[in-house]
Design brief:
About 85% of the residues lie in helices and about 0% in strands. With about 90 residues, the protein is mainly α.
Length: about 90
């Protein structure tokens, strides 16, 4: 027996997950372009001041959205670290 309400919730979650994946893909396309630009201009792969500003900005957005800012920071840090790893690989 299927619970229609639970199924509805799960379909919504699946749609949100799909949107997140596509948004992350778009974000990484742009960060790949940034990495290529940094590699050709001799800029360092990481920008600690930009990272700090982004973390602060997204922590505030999380608070406004009633989302745990610590969770948001961990999620963003994971993404930033992956971007820096890609950028570092482009410098070689």
């Amino acid at each position: 027996m299927t619970d229609d309400k639970l199924q509805y919730f799960r379909e919504s979650i699946d749609n949100i997950d799909a949107a997140l994946v596509f948004m992350l893909a778009e974000r990484f396309k742009v960060t790949q372009a940034v990495g290529a630009y940094k590699a050709t201009t001799g800029l360092p792969p990481a920008d600690p001041s930009r990272e700090a500003a982004q973390v602060a900005r997204l922590r505030k957005l999380a608070e406004d959205a009633r989302l745990d800012p610590d969770f948001t920071e961990k999620f963003l840090r994971f993404i930033i670290d992956e971007v820096i790893r890609h950028h570092t690989g482009m410098q070689a």
